[in-house]
Amino acid sequence: VVTRAGVVTVVVVTGAGVVTVVVVTGAGVVTVVVVTGAGVVTVVVVTVVVEKAAAAAYEGWRRLGVKERAAILFKVRDCLLQEKETIAIILSRENGKPLGEATGEVGFAASFFEWFAEESRRQYGDTIPSPAPSKRLITVRQPVGVAALITPWNFPIGMIARKVAAALAAGCTCVVKPAEDTPLTALLFAKACERAGVPAGVLNVVPCSRERVQEVGAALCASPSVQVLSFTGSTAVGKWLYSRCGPTVKKLALELGGDAPFIVFPSADLTRAVEGAMASKFRNTGQTCVSANRIFVHESIHDEFVSRFVSAMDDELKVGSGLQKGINQGPIINQRQFDRLVKIVNDSVSTGAKMVRGGLSLGGLFYAPTLLTGVTMDMPVATEEIFGPVAAIIPFQKEEEVIRLANTTDKGLAGYFYSNDVSQVWRVAEALEVGMVGVNEPMVSTCEAPFGGFKQSGVGKEGSRHGLDEFSHLKYICFGI
Ligand code: ADP
Predict the structure, then answer these.
(1) pLDDT band at 155, cuts 50/70/90?
(2) What single string gives the DSSP state of each residue in 74-138?
(3) What is the Å distance from ligand 1's center to 110 Cα?
(4) Residues framing ligand 1 (Cβ under 6 A)
(5) What percent of the chain has a predicted confidence (pLDDT) above 90?
(6) How far is the CA of 230 from the centre of ligand 1 (A)?
(7) Cα–Cα distance for residue pair 334/219, rounded to 1 Å
(8) Within 10 Å of residue 201's Cβ, how many Cβ atoms?
(9) Alpha-carbon distances of 412 from 255, 273, 278, 296, 391, rounded to whole Å
(10) What is the pLDDT of residue 49?
(11) How far away, in angstroms, is 179 Cα from ligand 1 center?
């Protein structure tokens, strides 16, 4: 297939279920993605010069009328929605998540294009009352330039869309480095953007293997063509990238790991609290940065909560292939994460946690939904980001005590609590050291609201009207009259 933008895509489907995809862009980038029948993905980047392509396309894109840019973003939304089913199948095959969740994620991705298409027309500046009669002061918003966007595998299209939609709306051009576990979803996303009329060079995708990722990351950080780096992923990699953006003084946005407390107070509606904990813990098989990581339950309702939670786990959770009907728990993404998870559980049990459910490897990368009680704050399950279908319950006695425990972490992404005591609701919402709070509600993420953390969970916001700020400068202009 030779596309309009000078991009050549060759898809070879050989016998034995082997698929080879070669993408050669006009800008001289050669990316080879090989997907074997066994589900193994090998990606080789031969040359990386895409940030030059993005820089070349920048002037044209930023000078486009804001209404015209918005029209293209609306069109991307439409293309994503039209291709929702096809993209969802590939997404589910790559990532393992249930098809329903994958389809929902494509809708989530589309929502950011709609939102930022609308917001792009509202990037207002200010007129500032001048202290001097001979001067007039105003501010305007201007795009930053080329944006490098590095994204994880847990929301293979949602995380890309949240960044790309904001960057394009602000007038930036992009280089996306998707996760090595989910490159094909990223390439399908790029195809949808191309079909929607995003001009050549405005959006570039560079998949690469895990072995080459540092090289690509270092190149993007060092490149003077790249003005802003936005990363979603682990805290360790975020710190690595942060330190490498110093020499070129890049703008930086980081969405890093979470360690969400989920607190159930005595006045809580237990039915809603159990439903909320189930949704927060087991959505995406626990592989989200806002998943409930430590579930604190007041001692007066602890046993009742545990008994209802166990029943809900037994009744609702079905493990298997994401493409199979009725499945809501897919596999763990890869062996590295699987081994990490097993170690966290085993080390916690060997230091005294009680295994109420699960703790079993079910073959391949499938891990049984697990419940641990009697967890203490020194166990790995309470100190590390679990990133898997493992619920850890910690009893508490007093509000001050649980707030202290909840804040005893260097992460501060999301936090949840269930209470029907209105004074307590205000106190706790204000006291939690996190960027997002769910009060009697586990699902907080939406394109209209700011997503981002405190402490080592990151820098900056995504989504909402604030999401544009990461990709634009505020320029002050002073007129002498
Ligand atoms: P996880 O451990 O969950 O895979 P990572 O933070 O390692 O999370 O990965 C998130 C994204 O960051 C992926 O796209 C991955 O390829 C990328 N990544 C990992 N290490 C680096 C690096 N040194 N430079 C640039 N990107 C990186």
Answers:
(1) very high
(2) HHHHHHHHHTHHHHHHHHHHHH---HHHHHHHHHHHHHHHHHHHHHGGG----EE--SSTTEEEE
(3) 24
(4) 150-152, 177-180, 213-214, 217, 233-234, 237, 240-241
(5) 89
(6) 12
(7) 26
(8) 23
(9) 11, 21, 21, 16, 19
(10) 64
(11) 7
CA distance to 89, 273, 302, 309, 385, per residue, from 312 (Å): 28, 12, 15, 5, 23
Q: Which of 161, 172, 196, 210 is nearest to 41 (CA)?
A: 210
Question: The complex's ipTM?
Answer: 0.98
CA-proximal residue: ligand 1, atom 24 (nearest): 217
Select from 230, 237, 457 the residue to mutate for testing ligand 1; criterion: most ligand atoms less than 8 Å from CB. 237
| Paired residues of 479 in beta bridges | 136
Residues, the chain, total? 481
Q: Pseudo-torsion of CA 81, 84, 87, 93, nearest 10°?
A: 150
Residue 29 pLDDT? 43
What is the model's pTM? 0.91
